[in-house]
Design brief:
Distance between the termini: 54 Å
Shape: elongated
Order of helices and strands: HEEHH
Number of helices: 3
């Protein structure tokens, strides 16, 4: 991790140094995600964003029961309630 100061050119482009692009797998034509987080902006690759969301989703999953099983159990319970007019 580190910090880098970059300049914005006259048309709004920011040059990311080659070493950083290589380390993060960003090449010509790559798409990156720029997120407005209030007082700051973050830049990440699609792969990094996916990995971040997957880490977050894992925090929601219960270790003793897979998420799919939990969803199916909830859906079955809901179907039973609907069948009984609840």
């Amino acid at each position: 991790m580190g910090q880098l100061t970059c300049k914005v050119d006259s048309v709004g482009r920011i040059m990311i140094p080659a070493g950083w692009r290589k380390r993060h797998g960003v090449g010509a034509g790559s798409e990156v995600i720029l997120t407005d987080e209030g007082p700051r902006l973050t830049l990440e690759t699609r792969k990094q964003a996916l990995q971040r969301v997957q880490r977050w989703a894992r925090t929601l999953a219960r270790a003793d029961r897979p998420v799919v099983d939990e969803f199916l159990a909830e859906r079955k319970a809901e179907a039973r309630r609907e069948a009984h007019g609840d």
